[in-house]
Structures are given as C-alpha cells and as structure tokens.
Write a structure and sequence with these properties.
2 copies of one chain form a homodimer.
Chain A lengths: L2 H7 L3 H13 L1 E3 H8 L3 H13 L3 E6 L2 E6 L5 H14 L3 H11 L12
Antiparallel strand pairs in A: 1-3, 2-3
The structure holds a DNA duplex (30 and 30 nucleotides).
Chain lengths: 115, 115
DNA sequence: TAATAATATACGTATATACATATATATGCT
DNA sequence: AGCATATATATGTATATACGTATATTATTA
C-alpha cells in the first residue's frame, strides 16, 4: 500500500463516504451502503470493487451477501490516515446524514461478524 | 477545510510530492520545487495555485520569489492526516529521490524564514 | 427447476483533470 | 528604460474517471 493508492481511493466522494461508514461499522454489505448513501447498486458495487482492487478493503461472501470491511492488513500510517479522515468527516453534515440513514434501515442483514 | 477538499488536493502525484517536501522543509519557492521534482515551471505553479485556492498551502512573496508553505491554520485532523501521509511516503523511492534532489540544488534562495 | 434477491460487470457517454506550449505579469538590476 | 529572472495564466487537447442503463452471475427459496 502506498500513499498514492490510498489517497486516490479517498479522492472520490462515494468511496470516501463508503469508507467512513465501514470504519465505524466494521463491515457492511452492498445493500446497506446502497441504502445509507442513497445511490444506485451498480455505482456502489463498482466503487467497492475498485477499493478491493486497491486492497483498501477486503470482502467475504455470506450467502447472498458480500460484506466489505477495511483491510486489516493496512500499514499503521494508513490506518492513522483513515482515522484522521474520520475525525474530519464527523463534523460534516453529509457524514452525519449517512450514519443516520444507515441506522434507520429496516431489515439489515444480521449475520455479520461482530467487530 | 473538509476531508473532501484535502483529499482531493492529495490525489494528484505532483501535489502530493510537493506537499511532502513542504512538510519537511517548512517553505519552498516554485523554482526549488521545479528543480527537486524535475517538472516544468507552469506545471508546478498551476498545482501550487490550486493548493492555495483550496487553502491547503499559503504563499508569501519575498522579492522575485514566492514561498509556499502548509497552511498553519489547518485543523488538527488535517495536520495529522498529512503527517500520516508523510510517514507512508518516506518509505517510497520517489520521495527519497525528491529530497535528495532538493538537497543537491545549488544556489537555493536563502532568504527564507526558518521554521 | 423456476423465480427472486444480491451483487457484479460491460458498454457507451459525459465530465473532470492534467498536460504542453505560448504568453503575460511582476520584481530586481544595470 | 531595458533586460533578466521568477512566477502565473490562457488555451486547446488528451486522458482518466465517473456515470446510467442494461445485462450477467451467484445464491436462496419455493
């Protein structure tokens, strides 16, 4: 992982919003992100795929659902960068709205691994 | 300053390389960055202007030279994000080469404010 | 096995971003 | 004033990136 790759992954708003939720929630499936961010499924899927390709996140399949989470193997500087980003994001309206929407989602798949 | 803006400013390699040198050196003029990064003057100038517009850096004129430095008013999370980026960058070949080139520059303007 | 749900991908298009080159502006010096 | 140096900007072009829509894939359930 290089700063260039990690920063590129954070340079798009959809990926940034997704990652901020992932940091907070541990792991989320595509449908949860689609709902929370109010964006189309292909759009979320495409951005998550690019995050996976860049090894910023990892995925695991659980039945129909594919759960994404921050790659635990990220180097320390990268994790700290993400945490700093989160601290900055938590002041933003958009971030707060996203979290609220996520929490309000009915029928969230609950077979997740708790983190 | 928002994460979106700061991260966008870091998503281009020229801006990233410039910022990494600025963090280390305190302040640098356009000609020093042009030399250290081995890029055209307009390219450096354009990117520094965009960093200034985004308020990531500030500038001051000293005679013919215009010195750029990290905006001291950046919020804490942003400074920490930049430091984390620096820690990641210091492992990279490119970063090391840039620093080496900078140090090797003859006739660096020396009327800088020490930081 | 058919139908449904969740996710992924392909493809054409639109937009943003960076680039090189040329030119303009500002300062210092003689 | 005239010239050199440092920096900035304008312009057209190329490239990267994101987008919407349609379709494919994979797993579950009836």
């Amino acid at each position: 992982m290089t700063p260039e790759i990690l920063l590129k992954s954070l340079s798009d708003q959809t990926r940034l919003r997704s990652l901020m939720l992932l940091i907070q929630e541990g792991e989320l499936c595509v449908c949860e992100l689609t709902y929370a961010l109010d964006l189309s499924q292909p759009k979320i899927s495409r951005h998550l795929a690019s995050l996976r390709d860049m090894q910023v996140v990892v995925d695991r399949r659980a039945g129909q659902w594919i759960y994404y989470s921050i790659n635990p193997k990220l180097p320390e500087w990268a994790k700290e960068l993400l945490q700093a980003t989160l601290r900055g994001s938590q002041k933003e309206k958009q971030y707060k709205a996203d979290m609220k929407k996520l929490k309000s989602m009915a029928n969230r798949p609950d077979n997740r691994i708790c983190v």
